[in-house]
Design a protein that fits this description.
Layout lengths: L1 H18 L19 H20 L12 H9 L3 H6 L8
Helix pairs in contact: 2-3
């Protein structure tokens, strides 16, 4: 029963993906994320994120799980978008 329900959800998800327009038109309810992380900021975030993730393997005990915080700068560096920058109105891309 669970597998059948999962297949129905996956089928509807695939239909939604196929219906999305390939252009950058904004659909109702769609969120457009503008790049607000520049090149230097991007590489600093990626390196910092990887370094923090390495703490998982270096530190022993429960404190090592703090290394998962490294996912935040890593992901924001990879997608060139930082939600906190958006809230504060900051952009390091150099574009106005």
């Amino acid at each position: 029963m669970f597998l059948l329900a999962l297949n129905k959800h996956m089928a509807s998800f695939l239909v939604i993906l196929q219906l999305r327009p390939s252009t950058k038109t904004k659909m109702k309810g769609e969120i457009i994320m503008k790049k607000n992380v520049g090149k230097v900021d991007k590489w600093i975030r990626i390196i910092l994120g990887i370094a923090l993730l390495c703490l998982i393997f270096i530190i022993e005990g429960n404190l090592r799980w703090l290394g998962l915080i490294g996912l935040i700068p890593l992901i924001t560096g990879l997608i060139n978008y930082c939600p906190l920058y958006e809230l504060l109105g900051i952009s390091t891309t150099g574009k106005k």
